């Protein structure tokens, strides 16, 4: 089995710090979802492979079945990040994991087989958008009334195909991916929307603050200085942030 080389001990130390920082209620089988998205969003996609090694060295993922479960969740996090950061950087992240997988650990599940841009897909996307954004959603979309492609992509692709697909990662777990992918790009308005989204998805204010601090550890490691606001800055009405 692959192990982290001595020269990568700084990465291991980072991952240990992120895992410890993550709130206990959301740590087990979830903290790495945020780490994946933060690494990609911070421009360090190859370190996702290091994260995979760090995880499979733990007893929690000691068997092929457990590692297949892990890969399925890691892959879904990366798929969701495609719509937030782009496919080339996600391909690099996925490649860093794929080259380390043993055959018995590979998961061949195809979560979006048979997907169609139909009314059910659109409704799923719109329902999640309405839940996360509530009264802000129509006000945000009104700004882009002359750009109908954007509304279609938002409802049916960004959310319908990617972010509202909760077969593998539920609503809160999806927010644990969306927030860091956006936050590590230093996008203040969307970060505040998804800090609020975490709270609306059932994560407490205190735990959301700890999650933000965990994301900041990765961003700092990557040489980024973030200026995106904090949980205490969120409000019910924030449609004028772009």
List keywords for this structure.
mainly alpha; globular; 0% strand; 12 helices; single chain; 242 residues
Oligomeric description of these chains: single chain
- Computed CA radius of gyration, to the nearest angstrom: 18 Å
Shape: globular
Q: Indicate the low-confidence ranges by residue numbers.
A: none
Average per-residue pLDDT, rounded, comes to 96
Strand runs, count: 0
Biggest sheet, open or closed, and with what strands and sense? none
Based on secondary structure, the structural category is mainly alpha
Q: Report strand %.
A: under 5%
Number of helices: 12
Helix-strand pattern = HHHHHHHHHHHH
Distance between the termini: 47 Å
Query: What percent of the residues sit in helical stretches (DSSP H or I)?
Result: 55-70%
Summarize the structure in words.
With 242 residues, this protein is mostly helical. The chain is built from 12 helices and no strands. The chain has helices at residues 9-21, 24-27, 31-41, 47-56, 64-85, 87-98, 119-133, 136-142, 148-163, 171-183, 188-200, 205-221.
Write the layout of secondary structure elements.
Layout: H1 9-21, H2 24-27, H3 31-41, H4 47-56, H5 64-85, H6 87-98, H7 119-133, H8 136-142, H9 148-163, H10 171-183, H11 188-200, H12 205-221
Helix pairs in contact: 1-12, 3-4, 3-5, 3-10, 3-12, 4-6, 5-6, 5-9, 5-10, 7-9, 10-11
